[in-house]
Amino acid sequence: MRGRMEPEPDLELLLLEARESIEAAQSYRRELGQRLQGLQAARRQIKESASQTRDVLRQHFNDLKGTLRKLLDERLVSLLQEVDAIEQETIKPLDDCQKLIEHGVSTAEDLVREGEVAILGGVGEKNEKLWNFTKKASHIQLDSLPEVPLLVDVPCLSAQLDDSILTIVKDQIFSHGTVASRPPVQIEELIEKPGGIIVRWCKVDDDFAAQDYRLQFRKSTSNHFEDVYVGSETEFIVLHIDPNVDYQFRVCARGDGRQEWSPWSVPQMGHSTLVPHEWTAGFEGYSLSSRRNIALRNDSQATGVLYSSAPTYFCGQTLTFRVETVGQPDRRDSIGVCVEKQNGYDSLQRDQAVCIGTNGAPVLSQADHLPIQL
Length: 374
Description:
May play a role in the negative regulation of cell cycle progression. The protein is built from three helices and eleven strands, in the order H-H-H-E-E-E-E-E-E-E-E-E-E-E. It is α+β, with helices and mostly antiparallel strands. The chain folds into three domains: 154 residues; 87 residues, Immunoglobulin-like, CATH 2.60.40; 99 residues, no CATH class. It has a four-stranded antiparallel sheet, with no helix packed on it. A three-stranded antiparallel sheet has the order 1-2-5, with no helix packed on it. A two-stranded antiparallel sheet has the order 8-9. Strand 3 and strand 4 form a beta hairpin.
């Protein structure tokens, strides 16, 4: 009995399934390739940070050795100078005493020679020489001897060296420095703003009690990081950022009650595609700052709306206004945003615009007289 014949599969269906399998394999390969790149980046970060840490440790301890050697040499010179000063000060009286004794010895020798000559002379000369010798000897105090100090009264220099300093230094050296596998803080988020970037960071070590944070940044083409913020906040907006330029950011922390800073976080790359805010230049009745980001109305009769030079804000962005000074109030004074630039209006109290007064309150739209919420 012949078995039932199975229907042949549809060729187009097979081709479709084959293409889908190929696409899935290609996508899988791409995903694996990206993960390999991620592994390579992680490996590179470990090796580069380990190499940098070795260099920092070697440099630091070489500097310590050089500084300690210099301090020890300076202390040695100071102690040797102190020994020299004591020696010179206390040896001078002994030198004076020695000169006095040597002078007495010389005088006594001369007197002995003269006495011997007087005794050995002739009878006539003998009486005269003996008389002269006796007269001369009577004027010399042969019983007066200079006092020589006892050894117990003479300085005996010595050095007092406390070997416990070696134990103290040893304990300090053995506890000096630590190696951390990761910094206690990391950059959490970079948010672009017109002409700036908001940097947010967080603590990743629960056992680390942070007192202050220190944020630095640099252009990707620069070799030098600059301090931009030191304080207790965990976010900061870095201004004066050039658009479409990559910047690196890093942050570290200082523990509560400590002076030294923690290791730096892993540098994060960020950039802003938004150009800095500038007011339109040349508008009658307004003066602009050098960076054109501050406008001052200098004519009470000035009319019309001062617009930004370009549309620098987009949906979803947080917009912050700040009024520095307020002069004579005017009902038209307001600040806000609009969809498009329209000439002929003396305020933003119109359709497709949101504005607030200088007191911070929403301004009613002239079109529908309803409050406009920010």
